[in-house]
């Protein structure tokens, strides 16, 4: 995911708040059995674009549900919520498809 996002080990480590050497060893497959699930999530999230200001951790779960959620939105507020979630989901897909914008690359 780091490579797909066109990021260096140092960049991901800085965003995730981990030691770059530790991350390089994880990528090399050394000691991966000791990595906590929460650490994997932090590493993955560090390769993704920042979330919008309105985002909180409760929204993260909904990114992994199929588009439209588990049912059709029943109210205008639900429809707006799922529209916002889809915008974030689309931004993540584009980020991995094209990497960071040229201005952000080292």
Strand fraction = under 5%
Distance between the termini: 18 Å
Largest sheet: none
Topology, number of strands:
0
Total number of helices: 5
| Secondary structural class | mainly alpha
Number of domains: 2
Helix content: 40-55%
In N-to-C order, the SSE pattern is: HHHHH
* Low-pLDDT ranges: 102-106
Shape estimate: elongated
Overall pLDDT confidence: 83
Radius of gyration: 16 Å
Give your account of this protein's structure.
The protein folds into 2 domains: 1-47, no CATH class; 51-106. With 106 residues, the chain is mostly helical. It contains 5 helices and no strands.
What is the element layout, followed by pairings?
Layout (H helix, E strand, L loop, with lengths): L8 H8 L3 H8 L9 H10 L10 H4 L15 H23 L8
Helix pairs in contact: 1-2, 1-3
In short:
The protein has 106 residues and is mostly helical.
List its salient traits.
106 residues, mainly alpha, 2 domains, 5 helices, 0% strand, disordered C terminus
């Amino acid at each position: 995911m780091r490579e797909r996002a066109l990021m260096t080990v140092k960049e991901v480590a800085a965003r995730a708040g981990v030691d770059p050497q530790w991350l390089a060893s994880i990528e090399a497959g050394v000691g991966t059995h000791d990595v906590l699930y929460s650490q994997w999530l932090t590493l993955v999230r560090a390769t993704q674009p920042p979330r919008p200001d309105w985002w909180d951790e409760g929204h993260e779960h909904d990114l992994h549900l199929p588009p439209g959620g588990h049912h059709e939105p029943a109210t205008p507020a639900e429809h707006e919520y799922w529209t916002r979630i889809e915008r974030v989901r689309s931004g993540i897909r584009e980020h991995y498809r094209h990497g960071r914008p040229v201005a952000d690359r080292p």
